[in-house]
Amino acid sequence: DVKVTQSSRYLVKRTGEKVFLECVQDMDHENMFWYRQDPGLGLRLIYFSYDVKMKEKGDIPEGYSVSREKKERFSLILESASTNQTSMYLCASSLRGRGFGYTFGSGTRLTVV
Amino acid sequence: GQQLNQSPQSMFIQEGEDVSMNCTSSSIFNTWLWYKQDPGEGPVLLIALYKAGELTSNGRLTAQFGITRKDSFLNISASIPSDVGIYFCAGLPSSGNTPLVFGKGTRLSVIA
Fold this sequence. Notes:
The structure holds two protein chains of two kinds.
Chain A: E1 4-6, E2 10-13, E3 19-21, E4 23-25, E5 31-38, E6 42-49, E7 56-57, E8 64-70, E9 73-78, E10 87-94, E11 103-104, E12 108-112
Parallel strand pairs in A: 2-12
Antiparallel strand pairs in A: 1-4, 3-9, 5-6, 5-10, 6-7, 8-9, 10-11, 10-12
Chain B: E1 5-7, E2 10-14, E3 19-24, E4 29-37, E5 44-49, E6 55-58, E7 61-65, E8 71-76, E9 85-93, E10 101-102, E11 106-111
Parallel strand pairs in B: 2-11
Antiparallel strand pairs in B: 1-3, 3-8, 4-5, 4-9, 6-7, 7-8, 9-10, 9-11
């Protein structure tokens, strides 16, 4: 079974802090994704990566950056956390090639106070 | 980005009832996927559809890839309490090397 592991289930951070959300997958997937989930807005794509050291902006990249130094790890960085970044963050991975479904992690619920 | 219109937004049903939800798009998709998210967890893939007209079942779940390639539906028969959760449709656009597009989800509540 593919496993996507997110480092924290719950996180509370202060406004202005730099926040790192880590995601690791163990099945050699080429593609990795970061989403945020808010009530009524569904899943919104923040950033994605199709290869090591490669990154592409999704629909809502503002206020975020990412890092993919190794194939199995994709980090989401909040450069200066703000209260409007309080949300559920979901990481996903998939094989290269179109049509493969994504495997999601369990999510990190981030609260910025 | 592209959008999928998923309906209904939420449903309250009695245990044992059948459920139907759907997704539509203004553009063509090559693949349709249906996910379920249990409370406090990430979405899990239920069914994948790769061909227009395809009808696929997974236990009490049945999903279809619309003939026009612009829609898909998911049916759940004889609902049970563990069907509670959020159901998402997702589609892969026909052009470009773009990620999946997700609907906003249907929140299902089952009353025992």
